[in-house]
Amino acid sequence: MECAIDAIATLGYARTSLAKIAKLAKLSPGSISYHFGSKDELIQAVVSEVAKLATEMMEPAIVAQPTATDALRVYLETNLEFMGRHRKPLLALVEIITHARGGTDTPGPYTAQHELALKDIERVLAWGQGTGEFREFDLRSMAIAIRGAVDAVPAQLLRNPDFDLELLARELTTLFTIATRRQP
Amino acid sequence: MECAIDAIATLGYARTSLAKIAKLAKLSPGSISYHFGSKDELIQAVVSEVAKLATEMMEPAIVAQPTATDALRVYLETNLEFMGRHRKPLLALVEIITHARGGTDTPGPYTAQHELALKDIERVLAWGQGTGEFREFDLRSMAIAIRGAVDAVPAQLLRNPDFDLELLARELTTLFTIATRRQP
DNA sequence: CGACTTTCTGATGGCACGTTCAGGATTTTA
DNA sequence: TAAAATCCTGAACGTGCCATCAGAAAGTCG
């Protein structure tokens, strides 16, 4: 799985084959099929692992915040911090999620996950509107903007490895703090 | 090319083959190679066509605005309007851009295009900061947030065809108007 | 030490892909 | 209408892919 992450993050999803992963792991191609059954199961295993790692790192810090404004700030901070700390796993995850498409009919296996991420944000936003911290706005639209900003980061990271994540984290928190708060 | 757009938008980039496109166009596979030389050239032709269509539709309206605030608003409006009007071409374009990766070394053919898009936004933002309409913020960070929000839309559109683009356009313009303006 | 399970190998089959090509069909030109 | 240019076909080739499998290798246990 480590080598699979490495391969996907380096080569991209499309160019990653079991043979390439096997070479990285110094194994024969058949050996991977033996352990994981199929390529899809290997991919699924990688997704589960990284997603678990991410939520374990982020969720506790977020729900511990006293106000919605703080929760939103910590949401952005922990997300970007995770990207800095676990670059390769994250890039692999993004590669997989953006490239995996269900058949013509099936809705695709990871769209549900994205929907869940939006719902998480909406919950924080609804909280802030409930307490009066936030102004009135459409929950879904604001959630899309927030998640969109976060999802844009991996591409930047891929292009420029020296990208300043801390600066972006500060800017995004002030940006969305201003954009969500009740106006004076 | 029309059928190529249709195929990519419907099936996704990975599942689109020359054979599938040929079937849609009621042609034989060889015929496509005859006209375009290679698959890459066909893809390139699609990208050029759609990109030209997009810039022709959006750029004049944006540069005609008197203030940076207006320009930013129109930037968001025209972008989302284009997505509503030309859904399939846009989805195809996004599929291609996000899925095309250069070799391990080459930087990828379309990353430059994305960088250009960010630079365009930064120019508007710098204008607004120069005139004093906008507060001080990091240009790149704000541009990433804006572009990220716009780029998140196609995925939504794919998931929910009845998505309310006009509502989103209104919400995003107020969001970023508030986020960029000089504070009272 | 010998039997059993677990792990691995490397060749194999079947498949889809992009591309090529000789030749037939169609349209344009003279 | 005859010749020439253009367009198209459908089969063929080479490649890379995932999955399979008989058997070798390594580890485990009575």
Oligomer: homodimer
Distance between the termini of chain A: 52 Å
Report the C-alpha radius of gyration of chain A, rounded.
Answer: 19 Å
Strand content of chain A: under 5%
Which two chains have the most extensive interface, and how many residues on each? Answer: A-B, 40 and 41 residues
Number of strands of chain A: 0
Global mean pLDDT of chain A: 92
Largest sheet of chain A: none
Index terms:
homodimer; DNA-binding; 184 residues
Structure description:
The structure is a homodimer of 184-residue chains. Chain A has 184 residues and is mainly alpha-helical. The first copy, chain A, has ten helices and no strands. Chain A is elongated, with a radius of gyration of 19 Å. The model of chain A has no long low-confidence stretch (mean pLDDT 92). Chains A and B meet through helix 7, helix 8, helix 9 and helix 10 of A and helix 7, helix 8, helix 9 and helix 10 of B. Chain A binds a DNA duplex (30 and 30 nucleotides) through helix 3.
